[in-house]
Amino acid sequence: MAVIANIGRGIKRSFTGTTGFIRNCMQELKKVRWPDRKEMTNYTLVVLSTIVVLAIFFFLVDMAIGQLVQWITE
Fold first, then answer.
1. pLDDT tens digits for 13-46?
2. Which residues of 21-30 are buried (b: 16+ CB within 10 A; e: fewer)?
3. In angstroms, what CA-CA distances link 73 with 45, 53, 57, 60, 66?
4. 31: which DSSP letter?
5. Domain ranges for the chain
């Protein structure tokens, strides 16, 4: 239980008001490695292709379940 209380105290000490919070945010953003244009294009293509594949999959599953329900209710 003392561990959880200490976590809360550590968070309060690290952010001394709004300016401390903004300062910490800026320090963390400087550590971020941003993707370049080629990587971003690749990531976008992966996401779009995944969406298309999943949309087709769920469409086919929906059609199969619809046919199954129609077959059962006849």
1. 555 678 888 989 999 999 999 999 999 999 999 9
2. eeeeeeeeee
3. 42, 30, 24, 20, 11
4. T
5. 1-32, 34-74
Place of tokens 């329900």: 69
Residue pair 24/14 in contact (Cβ under 8 Å)? The answer is yes
**Eight-state DSSP code of residue 14:** H
| Model pTM score | 0.58
Residue 55: name the closest of 63, 67, 65, 44 by CA.
Answer: 63
Distances (CA, A) of 41 to 16, 33, 38, 64: 39, 16, 5, 35
20's CB contacts (< 8 A; 6+ apart) are 14
Please give the structure tokens belonging to residue 15: 């952010």
- Select the more confidently predicted residue: 49 or 2: 49
